[in-house]
Amino acid sequence: MSAVPAVSASASPSPPPPSPARSLALVVCGLIGLVLGVVLTVLGAGAVASEVTLRSSSAVVEARITGSRILESRKTGRSYELTYRFQVPGKSASYDHRDGTGRTNLWASVEDEDTWRAAKARGTVSVRYLPSDPFVNRPVKSGASPLGDPIAGLILGLFIAIPSLLVCIVQIRGLVRRKT
Fold first, then answer.
1. How far apart are CA 54 and CA 163, in angstroms?
2. pLDDT tens for residues 94-151?
3. Positive or negative torsion for Cα 112, 117, 118, 124
4. Which of 26, 55, 22, 74 is CA-nearest to residue 138?
């Protein structure tokens, strides 16, 4: 009689390792996610830094209103928005509302309808800007939380970048182990 090794009833065979093609595909997806996450994180961090600097060392100027609109949303209600242009004392350049990606002449929301109507009646709106970089600016009585979107972008970027980095590390380690 020959001895048969005992096999535990609870032991299950380990799943086969993923194929190299699948691992490479996951690495590529992870790298794409990592790049996207890093870009969002950098843009969010830059916008947060700009807003913090704007709060601590800004100047105020009256900007000429170039457009106005009211947006209606079921979720957030009414939003009162303006576009504007201004010049900084001592400089000939003209500035408008921009974002970190370089988009120009963007709509900026103001605090409420009274602020919006008063600005439209005057034809100007008070704008806070950085003297060192006037492209960093927003209305003094800004409607939305100035830090809300940048912080959301920063967090979203981290939520994409970190898992993507982990996927890349795990898959690359699996590929390296398979070759050795």
1. 32
2. 999 988 778 899 999 898 999 999 999 999 999 999 998 898 899 998 876 666 677 7
3. positive
4. 55
The amino acid sitting at 100 is G
| Whole-angstrom distance, CA of residue 53 vs CA of residue 50 | 5
* CB atoms inside a 10 Å sphere around CB 146: 20
Least confident of 33-42, 48-57, 162-171: 48-57
Tell me the residue length of the chain. 180
